[in-house]
Amino acid sequence: MSAAAKDGTKENVNDVSGHALPHAIPSHLHLETPEKPYLDSNELIINMGPQHPATHGVLRVILKLDGEKVLGTECVIGYLHRGVEKIAENRTYAMFNPYVDRMDYVAAVSNGLGYCEAVEKLLNVEAPPRADYIRVILTELNRMASHQLWLGTHALDIGAMTPLFYTFRDREEILKIFEKYCGARLTTHAFRIGGCQYETYAGFEKDVKNFLTFVAPKIDEYEELLTTNRIWLERTKNVGVISGEDCVALGVTGPVLRASGVEWDLRKAQPYSAYSKFDFDIPTGENGDTYDRYLVRMEEMRQSLRIVEQAVNSIPEGPIMAKVPKVIKPPVGEIYHSIEAPKGELGYFIVSDGSTQPYRLRVRPPSLVNLQALDVMVRGLLVADVIAVIGTIDIVLGEVDR
Amino acid sequence: MPNFIMSYLGSTVTPGEAGNQFWALIYVLIIFAAVSLAVVAMNWFERKALAHFQIRLGPMRVGPHGLLQPIADALKLALKEDIIPAEADQFVFWIAPVIGLLAAFTVYTVIPFGPSQAVSDMNIGVLFMLGVSSLGVLGIVVAGWASNSHYPLIGALRSSAQMVSYEVAMGLAVVSAVLMTSMKTGTGTLSMIGIVESQQQQGIWFIFKFFPLGLIAFVNFVIAMIAETNRAPFDMAEAESELTAGYHTEYSGLRWSLFMLAEYAAMIAVSSIAVTLWLGGWLRPFPNLLNAPAWDFIFSLFPGLTFGALAAVAVIGVMRMPVHPYFRVQRIGLAVFAALLGFIALFLLVIALAGRSSDATVAARFRDGIDYVYWFVLKVALFMYLFIWCRATWPRYRFDQLMRVGWKVLLPITLVVLILTAIVGVIVS
Q1: CATH code of A369's domain
Q2: pTM
């Protein structure tokens, strides 16, 4: 044992060859305190992930357990790190646009909207109204798709297999609309800086309206399976409770924040794009538990439908692209623009040095910030609840690690 | 023909009771083969039924409608590399699935498929069944321990706690059924065959006896039995989304398939027990009310008609398949399968007709045997569907909630039902 370890400051745990292990156990969990009795059978350190069926990708959570009770958690991230922010510094503004789709890949349209609006703000241009409406329609459809995927996987984590297939069946209809619109289903690259690349295809409005009538009863169907289900209630009520103050202190946003009773939605608080023109409610919860977060997201799906319905009925004619120079060279300066992505506040901070490439681009990913709340939520709960809470925070590791 | 083979033929008791070891062995082999086949069929059926609950098709590629999928899976598992983790306790790791399998299959010695269609009729059949089926947990605990890994250990701990607590409620529910056997005669029985015969004598399935007492006991038993076999929504021990695979996380290949075999065999075993205790075992519907020879004949047509219906479904499947060279082998395969089912149907119908003339003939005895097994298997099959239905519908209970349901809900209810059954029984008699 090295000198540092003896006087209490913990080094990385080394393997036999003396190399620091990449999976070193973080020191604040106090794994090998000298006072620990030989064969302390009370505490169990368990690695959940990065290869685990329910950590939504490659999240690694180190759990400190007393039997099944969780004493503490430590998230280890970075297994999906692709250096998106660094890549931005070597791409022109237009070239970087498709990369943002790969962050939160289940809500690619929202990512693109945030990025395009941030650059537009930097350039001081505004997308024409028709483009704004198209953006709102696609973004809200994407919010719906993201929530559907969340619901399916969350229910699967808690053990209900069937909702997953129902939600995927209906999400498919959204992806079909995306595919018809821009050719891609998942990483859409739907928007361009200054507006939209593509005019809506013939029959777009009909497709969207058909989807609205198709999906409304389906949401009731999901609710029928879960909302009053005894086991679902037992598994989600009073599980992973977090107060509104804690959420604000941790920077948690999105449905998790709203379920704790804080009415904060950037679509209303700082209206962007065409959102100020539409009438919709912000659903909030009271208890801040997993069940409330479930209800909030279910209601958000319905509100998304409302927004889409209004948008598609009042979509104006006109150009879809603002006058943007061929070579995008924003003036020197910096900008922070954030939108309400399905998972929370998605912000882009861009520093421009006047060249064709960003000097620095920083993303504020909702998943990463919300993930901070995991430890607060699961302390004292059981292993099964950790899974439920990871599901309810709704993380996408592509966005957490970027 | 040696005497020990011939002497049993025509006997009306089980080979175990007759002391004929040769026929007992034959019965054991038949049951082993049949249960293994049933597990294969169940595997296919579960995947198909679950798929249709979930708006999917399920296996479609290996054989027509995926009929050969379980066989392909079994082959794949048998051929896989046999991995024993370096840190595992090798011998215990090796023996764990065998324990589970043995426990699951041993229960079948006392399960009566008919009045004489059982390996043995033990006078302590119910006790034996409870004792042996609870041994299954040993395999799981040992597997979790021997794997020397965290997830299996937690899975094993959950499983042992769960099985021990549900064993109690299960036992009490069984006792209330046993209590009902003593109602008319004054002497109860623990023999499985005796329990079914007592239902016949009393003219009522125990599920309807002292309504709703029998029903409550039955429902409690069903809940406990789902928990006992670690099936959803009580599949804590192997909760995939929590413990990756629970106690068999470290198992692969053939050993893993032994665990699966044990699980499904245990499911069929506990369903058989429920059928025996509450649903009249091998008895056909209304054996006392509709007991004219004409009714006997009508009910004896059921097995043949069932296979006929299955054959018809297969024929429809053949006709629905596209006429295309790609589907040629599948069409032929399904047609052969339909023909096979059709022949079985024909055979069963012929036997039913042949057994019509007189009750004493070999054909009549054969027909009765088929009837008993048919009604028994049909009832068990309904339970199998129930298992799948539950799995498709419900989320998973959490561990502490599961224990709470076991101790605070099921146990008091079964206790009360037991006491009420005793009181009502005394009053009635």
Answers
A1: 1.10.645.10
A2: 0.83
